[in-house]
Amino acid sequence: MSHVSPSRVFAEVARAVPEACRNNIVVIGSLAAGYHYFRKDPTKAVRTKDVDCVLEPFHAAVGAGQSIARQLLDAGWQRRVTGDHQKPGSVKTPVEELPAVRLYPPDVEPDSEEAWFIELLTVPESADVSGRVWTRLPLAEGHFGLPTFRFLSVTTFRPLKAGPLGIRYARPEMMVLANLLEHPKIKPERMSAAIVGREIKRSNKDLGRVLAIARLADLDDYRPWAEAWRKALQACFPTEWSVLAKSVGNGMRELMASKTDFEEAHHTCLNGLLSSDPPTVDGLRAAGERVLGDAIEYLESNADR
């Protein structure tokens, strides 16, 4: 994990991306949340390594992805070559075996404390997408893949604009909702890479981000989040939004009830979004209880409205 300045990285991404494609990008994840809350404080940083850039709308994703990847590669950006599928494929390569587009800025040492890379993703083609789905992205170097997940469309709902930079980023409350939906229970799968020496369940990492954003928001009342969530669910999942809303807090309740899982989530916050202002376990739990009581339970109880 690298220690990066959200404002600086946002500016670098904006400069590097073709101007015509900036409106096709929505930055999500820790960097987006860090930019939202720390952009006016240059002393604040987050620990992260990837800048997740979601391409939307879906019908424009391949064209935008090709333009962005081409400009970055021609400018000297280097591929991050890790994982099972490293070599670019061909038209015959199954789409799920293609490498993702992950690119380091020029002259960056991948192992340095300030190393970060862009990863290109896309929104789902429809609300019926389940699990991880890949879209083929042909480049001169070979074929790559754009991954998506079912609830990624929520993160691009009414995104915010990063000032004069020309790129957009996910609303913090929408990232919270996407992570809640993705983890209706604590799953046993662990992250492929350790977080500061520890193997962490992916559910605990993602629900830990919910806790981190809730703490950074520090609202007197989180019920406006619930109203925004309802609108996003109705727009992204019009036929099943009510069913999703009624169970949106199940994973968070499981996390809050497990000392071991909650401690893992706390570890990810200390070494991620909240590294500049590390919370105690009790302080993080208080943030979780507030968002659970104000926003999650409000949405669940009004799902039939």
In short:
The protein has 305 residues and is α+β, with helices and mostly antiparallel strands. Helices cover 43% and strands 15% of the residues. The chain contains eleven helices and eleven strands.
What does this structure look like?
A hairpin with a 2-residue loop joins β8 (132-139) and β9. The radius of gyration is 19 Å and the shape is globular. With 305 residues, it is an alpha+beta fold. The model has no long low-confidence stretch (mean pLDDT 94). It has eleven helices and eleven strands. The chain has two domains: 2-155, Beta Polymerase, domain 2; 171-301, no CATH class.
List the topology elements.
Blueprint: E1 2-4, H1 6-16, E2 25-28, H2 29-38, E3 46-48, E4 50-55, H3 58-74, E5 78-79, E6 102-104, E7 117-122, E8 132-139, E9 142-149, H4 152-155, E10 160-161, E11 168-169, H5 172-182, H6 202-217, H7 223-236, H8 241-246, H9 250-257, H10 259-270, H11 281-301
Parallel strand pairs: 2-11, 4-7
Antiparallel strand pairs: 1-3, 2-4, 5-6, 6-7, 8-9, 10-11
Helix pairs in contact: 1-2, 5-6, 6-10, 6-11, 7-11
